[in-house]
């Protein structure tokens, strides 16, 4: 089963993403911080991370950079409402750091599902039941 991790400090966004993705048949984990998300990547077989950019403690840009360094096979989607500066300030930088795609908050159900389905297609040839096997390096 294709496994997605959602990282966001907003519990409502976590809940919404989890419910929408689980209804579509995805296995979904949730983390409220970048550090908790990184730990989950170490302990679970994660195929896709959807992370907020603006979070306390460790922001999403740092989280993206660390995930891509430690787990280069994991695909990442960055999401942001942009705070005071707007999403156009952060999302292009997220792509430069390794995010495969971006979502501007607020997003619709269809926008979320379209972005996730595109990542599944890129990663598995479109089969969300096909599991991605981590490389030997990431299993240690």
Residue fraction in strands: 15-25%
Strand order of the largest sheet: 2-1-3-4-5
Radius of gyration: 14 Å
How many domains is the backbone divided into?
Answer: 1
| CATH level 1 class label | Alpha Beta
- The global form is globular
Total strands: the figure is 5
CATH fold node name: Rossmann fold
H-E string: EHEHEHEHEHH
The amount of helix comes to 40-55%
**Low-confidence blocks of residues:** 131-140
In whole angstroms, the N-to-C terminal distance is 22 Å
The major β-sheet equals: 5 strands, parallel
The CATH architecture name reads 3-Layer(aba) Sandwich
CATH superfamily, please?
Answer: Response regulator
How many distinct helices?
A: 6
How confident is the prediction overall: mean pLDDT?
A: 88
Structural class, please? alpha/beta
Can you offer a commentary on this structure?
The protein is globular and about 35 Å long. Strands 2-1-3-4-5 form a 5-stranded parallel β-sheet, with helices on both faces. It has 6 helices and 5 strands; from the N terminus they run βαβαβαβαβαα. Residues 131-140 have low confidence and may be disordered. The protein has a single domain, classed as 3-Layer(aba) Sandwich (Rossmann fold). Helix 2 packs parallel to helix 3. With 140 residues, the chain is an alpha/beta fold. The protein has helices at residues 11-23, 34-43, 60-70, 91-96, 109-124, 136-139; strands at residues 3-7, 27-31, 48-52, 75-80, 101-104. Helix content is 43%, strand content 18%.
């Amino acid at each position: 089963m294709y496994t997605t991790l959602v990282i966001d400090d907003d519990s409502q966004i976590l809940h919404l993403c989890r419910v929408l993705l689980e209804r579509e048949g995805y296995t979904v984990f949730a983390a409220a911080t970048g550090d908790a998300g990184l730990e989950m990547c170490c302990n679970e077989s994660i195929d896709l991370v959807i992370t907020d950019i603006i979070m306390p403690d460790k922001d999403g840009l740092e989280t993206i950079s660390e995930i891509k360094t430690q787990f280069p096979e994991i695909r990442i989607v960055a999401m942001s409402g942009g705070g005071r500066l707007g999403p156009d300030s952060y999302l292009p930088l997220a792509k430069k750091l390794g995010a495969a795609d971006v979502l501007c908050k607020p997003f619709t159900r269809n926008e979320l599902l379209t972005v996730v389905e595109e990542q599944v297609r890129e990663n598995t040839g479109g089969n969300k039941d096909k599991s991605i096997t981590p490389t030997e390096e990431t299993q240690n």
